[in-house]
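FW: tagging you since you asked about this chain on Friday. Here's the raw sequence from the shared folder, copied in full. Didn't touch anything.
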Amino acid sequence: MAKEETLSISKDLQELQRKLSLLIDSVQNNSKVVAFMKSPVGQYLDRHPFVALTLLVFVVVSAVPVGFFLLLVVLTSLAAFVGVMLLEGLVISVGGLSLFCVLCGLGFVSLAMSGTIVVCYVVVSSLLSHWFSPRPLTPNSSGDCQLAVKSPGLEGHYQE
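HL: got it, structure written out here
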């Protein structure tokens, strides 16, 4: 019974991987994406992945405040047609200033999130490479196994 579930999960993961690779291929082969990647901005972002990640995080987290601001603009414009001209200017000015402050804050948050993501990636990848690196184990006098450390002065000999 467990083997059938494992095979089913394995097949599902292979299908998901195939669909994901097809999606990535379709995005990479899109003419607009190719044109963007040939532009100076696309080449800069390709050479600086941290900036690209920060920009992506900023765009994603700023979508909701920008949407609220546009909704506010549309609603106040409708109110202006009814006759509230001064209120519209005041509300849009205050809303624009508020949006500017929120976007500046989100810029700092996205920079911090990108830095955290990069640090986590570096730490996890270095820990995984350290844990799964092939090293011979040698038993000591107490029967415990310790990692063998190669001495830089003695070639071919191991010390504890």
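FW: The beta strands are 137-139, 145-147, 149-150, 158-159.
HL: agreed, and The chain has a mean pLDDT of 82.
FW: great, closing this out.
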